[in-house]
Amino acid sequence: MATQKMLKFVSTPREMPEKRSAAERSEDFHEIYREFARAKAAEQASRCSQCGVPYCQSHCPLHNNIPDWLRLTAEGRLYEAWQVSQATSTLPEICGRICPQDRLCEGNCVIEQSGHGTVTIGAIEKYINDVAWEEGWITAVQPGQERAESIGIIGAGPGGLSAAHMLRARGFQVTVYDRYDRAGGLMTYGIPGFKLEKDVVLRRNQWLADSGVEFVLNCAVGEDISFDAIRGKHDAVLIATGVYKTRDLDIDNADAGGVVRAIDYLTASNKVDFGDEVPDFADGELDAKGKRVVVIGGGDTAMDCVRTAIRQGALSVKCLYRRDRANMPGSQREVQNAEEEGVEFVWMSAPGKFIGHVTGDFAASQEADVDGPVRTVSQIASVSIQKMRLGAPDVTGRQAPELIEGADYDEPADLVIKALGFEPEDLPRLWGVEGLEVTRWGTIKANFQTHQTSLPGVFAVGDIVRGASLVVWAIRDGREAAESIAGYLTGEARIAAE
């Protein structure tokens, strides 16, 4: 009987939730997709082929039991669908919104391979879990037994929050430390509201607090509290800081005024969205309004920047990427959304240098020798753009971009945003920690199964181990590390040292 509700992909076309028009959504920071209605969610879920080997599940880092909750949704059994969904995912309402499903579950859907269009897995996951919140099915964690052991988690991003959830459910005492004034990490301050509205993150943060997780915010490890103090206070420590150091460009005039880091730009925009006072936004430095904006990069962060600039009222927004569209790392769905909103992509292009113009000087006013050199400040005026072509494959197998000599041209710009990816900070130096081993890339060295570092009782997860990656991978790491930490503290599991 159940199968009669499924396998509808032949007769029912693929549909996403209705997308707000580009003109409407470009005026605000609200999410761009409208909600599925119950009937539409059930209809789309019924397109699942219930295949014997569910590639959607195997290509999900959390191995979510997608076919089962699609079937339950198609049958109108939403409470059971939610139970299956949240059994393997700690932040399902967030993954449904921001996972690159086109590269993971949906991109490996069997009916997609057969030309019928993938099941809209992400939109249905979002729908199921939004209904769960609305219906009050999601209640605070109530451990069967409280335990005396405590865990200190450094970083309130997806990895840290997922571990906090799992450990608290087992009755452990959990304290999360974070440098920002709100928990959530890049989910709060890095990802714009049009992809992930902030009340969704704050609601989950409050749920964790209601469940007994303690948050210590505005607390920078190495400045406000030492790493040794955290280790001394807790029975185990989890490092889940993420990576925030921006990759830079080695080109002329790299420090010109108006050349900013993506993380600074996005954080300022999100803080303004919260209603916070942000001086660098108020004085115009991090505000794209009325400016010719050039974003450098082709990943999801670059997509966030170009679409934010549109919403801030930029005069024009151009995105430079040194490869072609097919080779860009960002979500193709995000590229399409950006193009609809008025972003121009300049493929096969890279910045050669930043060209500035003098805006002022500092001489005697800075107690400088009046006979000495005058210090000048340069404000960005344009970007010298080098045209590229794709050559032989590099060590990763991707065609490497090569410079086309003599094809340079200047692109006027008032604001340049560097979205070139992130690198790990030097935590052993910043925190004054001896014996915390790192890899040659600067990431923390941790066992892939247990997530234990070179220090006893210290674990690490997420981007600080993997390098810049996806929220869903951090969630998986956090869940796995929670299991290892619980075993370490109770003596129920052996923790590998390597």
Automatic annotation (TrEMBL):
Single GO MF annotation: 4 iron, 4 sulfur cluster binding
Residue ranges occupied by any FAD/NAD(P)-binding domain in the UniProt entry: 152-478
Domain Dihydroprymidine dehydrogenase residue range list: 26-136
Natural source organism: Paracoccus lichenicola
Basic and acidic residues bias spans: 15-24
Keyword list, A-Z: 4Fe-4S, Iron, Iron-sulfur, Metal-binding, Oxidoreductase
Record-linked PANTHER family: GLUTAMATE SYNTHASE [NADPH] SMALL CHAIN, GLUTAMATE SYNTHASE [NADPH] SMALL CHAIN-RELATED
Protein name as annotated: NAD(P)-binding protein
Region (Disordered): 1-24
